[in-house]
Design goal:
Layout lengths: L1 H40 L4 H8 L11 E9 L6 E5 L3 E5 L3 E10 L5 E10 L7 E6 L5 E3 L4 E10 L9 E10 L9
Parallel strand pairs: 1-9
Antiparallel strand pairs: 1-3, 2-4, 4-8, 5-7, 5-9, 6-8
Length: 183
């Protein structure tokens, strides 16, 4: 029995060491996996963010002034008040800007909302880079709570010449709502 117990212990030890080595290797693999995920989804891409903040270089187009309009909607819900603080702003391409949206929970209970962004015209979407946005995570509100939500963005200098006006629009949804509209 001693021999079989020793053999079982050696097998268990070997499997545990293999598991530790695999966990260590997986930890190193997370960084490139995250980069691939960001590249595929377009969210948080290091390349996109570095390109957005790059103000030097000879390949970049000259900065120009573009008007960015802000709109908001709350589809199918009377439980939110949601609107941009400023209706528009003139921005210089290649520079970082910040704007705010104001959201208020009209219900008397705690709720969670999620903003879904869109940029128009559609072909300008890849040139509008959000570096920080309330739309990246669900927003939790206490009953009747109101607050301002920030968006930081850069309009890429490579924006096609024919586009001089962009619209950033958000639709604000209740996260708890189901597909049929019930809570």
């Amino acid at each position: 029995m001693n021999e079989s117990a020793n053999k079982a212990n050696r097998g268990l030890t070997a499997r545990l060491l293999l598991m530790v080595a695999a966990s260590f290797a997986f930890g190193f693999a997370l960084v490139p996996l995250y980069d691939v995920f960001c590249e595929v989804t377009g969210v948080g891409s290091r390349a996109g963010l570095s390109r957005a903040t790059d103000t030097g270089g000879t390949a970049a187009a000259e900065p120009r002034i573009v008007t960015v309009e802000f709109t908001a909607s709350v589809p199918g819900s009377g439980r939110w008040e949601f609107a941009p603080v400023a209706a528009s702003m003139e921005v210089k391409t290649g520079q970082l800007y910040e704007t705010h949206y104001r959201a208020r929970n009209l219900s008397g209970r705690d709720v969670t909302g999620q903003a879904v962004p869109s940029v128009a015209p559609m072909r300008a979407t890849k040139y509008f880079l959000k570096t920080e946005c309330f739309c990246f995570t669900p927003q939790h509100f206490k009953g009747a709570e109101e607050r301002e939500l920030a968006v930081r963005f850069v309009v890429d200098r490579d924006l096609p010449p024919g586009i001089d006006r962009l619209t950033l629009s958000y639709a604000f949804y209740d996260v708890e709502r189901t597909a049929d509209g019930t809570t």
